[in-house]
Amino acid sequence: MATAAAAAAAAAVSSPAAPRAGAAAAATARRGFVTFGGGAARSSPTLRSGRGFSGVRTYVAAVEQAVAKDATKLEAPVVIVTGASRGIGKAIALALGKAGCKVLVNYARSSKEAEDVSKEIEAGGGEAITFGGDVSKEADVESMMKAALDKWGTIDILVNNAGITRDTLLMRMKKSQWQDVIDLNLTGVFLCTQAATKVMMKKKKGRIINIASVVGLTGNVGQANYSAAKAGVIGFTKTVAREYASRNINVNAIAPGFIASDMTAELGEELEKKILSTIPLGRYGQPEEVAGLVEFLALNPAASYITGQVHWHYDCISLRFFCSEFYLITFQLTLVTRRCLPLTEGW
Question: Which are the catalytic amino acids?
Answer without folding.
Answer: 226
